[in-house]
């Protein structure tokens, strides 16, 4: 649970983006810049008993927090629900733990330093994509594709 100090709690309705059809979010009814010292701060978000790390987004001068399916399910929330949201500044370094097979492939492919220059979000997306493989053959293929994409200078899969 987030400590009360420097926490900002509000009620919000979990909404779905009309443009994407699947993207869900809550609108943040705070002056985020005043509350956190910048427009797109890294935050820890708590909905119910579920806490996750993200960054506040800004679109059209409004502040939003995106909530993916895994976080919605963990929080027991669905689109249309009114939820209590608590935000607190997240100043801890964001580090993606490399699976052994990916680390070895990045080293042998000579792209480990390219990997280290990717943003936390891009690294996390690759590691999650690899981790979602149900079969060993699929995982191995995704590891190979990741090394190829990183070597080609591509940030996302």
Please provide a written account of the structure.
This protein is of the alpha+beta class and about 160 residues long. About 35% of the residues lie in helices and about 25% in strands. It has helices at about 30-35, 70-75, 100-110, 110-115, 120-130, 135-150; strands spanning about 10-15, 15, 25-30, 40-45, 50-55, 55-60, 60-65, 80-90. The strands form 2 sheets. Strands 1-8-4-5 form a 4-stranded antiparallel sheet. A 4-stranded antiparallel sheet has the order 2-3-7-6, with no helix packed on it. Helix 3 runs parallel beside helix 6 (about 135-150) and helix 5 packs antiparallel against helix 6. It starts with 7 loop residues before the first strand and ends in a 6-residue tail after the last helix.
Summarize it:
The chain is α+β, with helices and mostly antiparallel strands and 157 residues long.
Key descriptive features of the protein:
157 residues; alpha+beta; four-stranded antiparallel β-sheet; elongated
List the helices and strands and how they pair.
Blueprint: E1 8-13, E2 15-16, E3 24-28, H1 32-36, E4 42-47, E5 50-55, E6 57-59, E7 62-66, H2 69-75, E8 82-89, H3 100-108, H4 112-116, H5 120-131, H6 136-151
Antiparallel strand pairs: 1-8, 2-3, 3-7, 4-5, 4-8, 6-7
């Amino acid at each position: 649970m987030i400590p009360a100090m420097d926490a900002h709690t509000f009620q919000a309705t979990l909404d779905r983006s009309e443009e994407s059809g699947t993207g869900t979010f809550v609108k943040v009814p705070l002056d985020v810049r005043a509350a956190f010292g910048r427009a797109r701060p890294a935050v820890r978000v708590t909905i119910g008993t579920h806490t996750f790390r993200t960054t506040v987004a800004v679109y059209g001068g409004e502040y939003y927090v995106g909530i993916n399916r895994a976080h919605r399910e963990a929080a027991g929330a669905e689109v249309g629900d009114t939820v209590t949201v608590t935000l607190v500044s997240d100043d801890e370094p964001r580090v993606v733990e490399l699976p052994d097979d990916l680390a070895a492939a990045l080293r042998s492919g000579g792209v480990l330093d390219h990997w280290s220059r990717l943003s936390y979000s891009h690294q996390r997306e690759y590691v999650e994509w690899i981790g979602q493989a149900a079969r060993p053959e699929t995982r191995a293929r995704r590891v190979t594709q990741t090394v190829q994409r990183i070597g080609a200078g591509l940030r996302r899969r």
